[in-house]
Amino acid sequence: MLSRALTLQSMARLDNISDMILQELTRDGRFSNLELARRVGLSPSACLRRVQELERDNIIKGYRARVNRDALGRGFVAYVTVGLSQHSRAAQDAFERAIDAAEQVRECHSVAGSVEYLLRVEVADLSDYKAFRADILGALPQVTSIRSYVVMDSPKDEVR
After folding, report:
1. For 98, what's the count of Cα atoms within 13 Å in the CB-facing half-sphere?
2. Could you tell me if 41 and 106 lie in one domain?
3. pTM higher than 0.85 for the full model?
4. Nearest of 58, 51, 57, 55 to residue 37 by alpha carbon
5. In this structure, are 81 and 142 located in the same domain?
6. Which residues of 2-28 are buried (b: 16+ CB within 10 A; e: fewer)?
7. How do 76-84 and 117-123 pair as beta strands?
8. Can you give the CATH number for the domain in which 112 is found?
9. Cα separation of 140 and 155, whole Å?
10. How far is residue 81's CA from residue 148's CA, in Å, rounded to a whole number?
């Protein structure tokens, strides 16, 4: 309950300037404080205080590099829904451990609806995806359904 209260308190403090800081850092987390301050219309010291407060309040959880998946040999991307045969904690834990070990899976989300999980899978090509689907995902005893959605283009992708 305390965590929810802190989150609501943090949300109440977000104003237009903090929102602009978040937008700029989402675009490029490597801006110098001086450049970020210029972009959002603050003095460097005020901007630094705001960023530190956003980090302290866990609104900014970290910074990431955007990578070129093609250059890494992971240009084939598919979103995959997975249904499990059992809805027990043991089945979910076993599935999540197996997925955690699969380097092809870049994201795993437990979801509500007709399936239990949504995965983002990145591999080199269709052949590699077929091998992942058959040899890794299809080999898990608790998996009963797999549905693949191959990404053809990403006109909007905030993590790209």
Report:
1. 18
2. no
3. no
4. 51
5. yes
6. eeeeeeeebeeeeeeebebbbebbeee
7. antiparallel
8. 3.30.70.920
9. 33
10. 7
In our burial notation (b when 16+ CB lie closer than 10 A, e otherwise), range 137-155 reads beebebbeebeeeeeeeee
CA nearest to 95, candidates 136, 133, 140: 140
Q: Which residues, other chains included, contact 118 with Cβ-Cβ below 8 Å and sequence gap of 6+?
A: 79, 80, 81, 82, 107, 108, 109, 111
Specify the 3-state DSSP secondary structure of 128.
helix
Place of tokens 């609501």: 8
DSSP state of 76: E
Q: What are phi and psi of 7, to 5 degrees?
A: -65, -45
- Name the residue with tokens 């990145």: 122
What is the pLDDT tens value at each position of the chain, 160 positions in all? 444 444 445 444 689 999 999 999 988 899 999 999 999 999 999 999 999 999 999 999 999 888 888 889 899 999 999 999 999 999 999 999 999 999 999 999 999 999 999 999 999 999 999 999 999 999 999 999 999 999 999 888 876 5
Indicate whether 84 and 118 sit together in one domain: yes
CB 17 within 8 A of CB 41: yes
> Contact at 8 Å (CB) between 118 and 145?
no
